Amino acid sequence: MIKYIIFDFDGVIVDSEVLAATAFAEVLSKMNINEYSSEIIASKYAGNKTIKVAEEICKTHNIKDPTIIYNQVMKSVSGLFKKKLKAVEKIKVFLNSNNSVFFIGSNSGKQRILRGLKTVGLSSYFKDENIYTFEMVENAKPSPDIYLKIIENNNLNRKEVVVLEDSVPGVRSAIAADLKVIGVTAASHWKNRSAESLKKEGSIMILKSYLELDKFLKLI
């Protein structure tokens, strides 16, 4: 029986990946780097830390200082989040109906998560002490560190835990921690995309809508 659910944040709780991708595409376009549409960014880099994405793009284009891109993207993302951030569709319906203990394990920062939850009206569902971020571990996803820390700190039985992830790095992280993973494709950055990559990495199911999750959990 599943008693504990660990949510990734971006793309699983908040529909933010498309906003981050839009910010990257806009910043790069202003630098005359035009081959990265928001769709390409979301597809290729979802689930990765923003600074890592900036580093990879800079390496490709021989830009020495990735903080030039990173700082501009973070400024743009902050503005977009304030104006356009929404919860992933129907997640609130699920949170209201399920009695599991909820955790968050994310490559995002703690303060950003807290602001995001407040913006979309979901703060009351996640206790502060149950929010774990890359700042709390040595290695970010796809390392298993963040999930291992949640398990160890809270003495959880792995058989009673399921992870919800929307990206390849996230699924790899949970699998490496020996946890069951459901691939989530309910956010807008998965529109018109195949979930095959999440299946190949080991997701036991693919969740297209939170209206299906209670039914999925009964099958585990």
Q: If you had to describe this structure to a student in words, what would you say it looks like?
A:
The protein has a 6-stranded parallel sheet, with helices on one face. It folds into 2 domains: 4-15 and 86-219, 3-Layer(aba) Sandwich (Rossmann fold), CATH 3.40.50; 17-84. The model has no long low-confidence stretch (mean pLDDT 93). Helix 9 links the parallel strand 5 (180-184) and strand 6. It is α/β, with parallel strands linked by helices. The chain has 10 helices and 6 strands.
Number of domain modules: 2
Question: Helix/strand/pairing class, anyone?
Answer: alpha/beta
Gross morphology is globular
Mean pLDDT: 93
Q: For the record, what CATH class of the largest domain applies?
A: Alpha Beta
Number of helices: 10
Query: Taking strands numbered 1, 2, ... along the chain, how are they ordered across the largest sheet?
Result: 3-2-1-4-5-6
Largest sheet: 6 strands, parallel
How many DSSP E strands?
A: 6
Q: Which stretches are poorly predicted, pLDDT < 50 over at least 5 residues? A: none
Question: What is the CATH architecture descriptor of the largest domain?
Answer: 3-Layer(aba) Sandwich
Helix fraction, binned, reads: 40-55%
- SSE topology string: EHHHHHEHEHEHEHEH
Task: Write the CATH homologous superfamily of the largest domain.
Answer: HAD superfamily/HAD-like
Terminal residue distance: 7 Å
- Percent of residues in β-strands: 5-15%
CATH fold field value of the largest domain: Rossmann fold
Outline of this structure?
This protein has helices at 17-30, 38-45, 50-60, 67-84, 91-97, 110-120, 145-154, 168-176, 196-201, 213-219; strands at 4-7, 101-106, 131-133, 161-165, 180-184, 205-207. The protein is of the alpha/beta class.
